Input
Amino acid sequence: MKRIVRNVTHHADLYRIALYLGVTGYGGLAVLTQIKKRYVYESAIVSERTFNDALSLAQVLPGSTIINLIAFFSYLRAGLIGAILGTGIYILPTFLLTTAAAAFYFRFAGLTVTSTMLTGLNILLIPLLTNALIGLGESVWKRQGKLARRSIFISIVSFILYLTHTVGVVTLILIAGALGMLLYAFTGFIEEGQEELGIVEGALFKRKKAWLLMLAAIVIFGLALYDLSLPLWRLFSSFIRIGLLSFGGGVASLPLMESLFVGKLGWFTSVQFWDGIAISQLTPGPILIVSAFIGYRMAGFLGSFVATVGMLIPSVLLIILAGKIHNRIRHLIIVRNLTTGFLAGFMGMLGAIIIGQISRTGMTVTVGLLSVAGFVFIRKMKYGILLAALLSFTVPFLLAGI
Output
């Protein structure tokens, strides 16, 4: 691709890019192509090397890879406030759409039309989750070569433990990490393409007052929620914890959320939770935006806002902090092996979730055909998710005679 260099002199350019990606960002990690085009080739906000280094870092941190990148690139150009604004602008279209969809769902969920629509959405989840599993697997196994068998073993163990509810999800994550450290301890496994991340030198923490003010604001915000509303505090603290543990991208947070909100807290039935996941997939942006759906169920629009903020805080902070220490810790074998175990564990849990979703929808011939067709669309076409959604919507309505 021919490189078009245009110096970015206004922060408004950053926010325009973030808004564009927020409105058009269908297709999960397929959006990376657009991000590279906008930040590297068209606007020259970062170099190609910086992009590749930041991508490798973003993929091993918890949270959405896309959010991590946008927060980091915004920080490099516009500082801490820029990172907050860039992330907020990117997530805004998806947040508003998901909150509106949640309001519609909880008001009209009993209608036949709504029920039929949700049937199609839940079928759509099968190819979406399958595609996510394959994408996550490719990103891990291709780097490991023959050693991938160890990750497959960890995935199988996690799959069995999650499917049989033998241990809790957090315990399962820790088991996967421990297996990663054990199985890769003496293999000499080193990922390729990890060069020095030369973007952060000493500049990341020059504005110490901004950091102190932001950390103080987070603490005050949390204390205010605790004092004013216990449900809002529980939403906020729950999503911060999920944001800290969701290694492997937004999809990796699904086992954590299901275990907490359906199992432990009982805020949702399994049907409601997976309806929310399906609805969130109709919007651009990361799957983590299901936090808005969950928040709305508990406390309306304010709940949506609080839950989404709680989910985003770890991503924004960790990508910036990790950028500073990346060069120091990336050579540590224990760090590489631990994150490898986490990723393999999430693949196993995601496989179990797909089995559960198939069980919930019922594997009829119609569901099977729609799932296969949807998978092909999502895998092969730029906006395949929209075509898959249209197909999943239309067929159930036709079969129901509505």
Observations:
- The two ends are 48 Å apart (CA to CA).
- Confidence is low (pLDDT under 50) at residues 1-9, 190-205.
- The longest helix spans residues 65-108.
- The chain has one domain: 94-400.
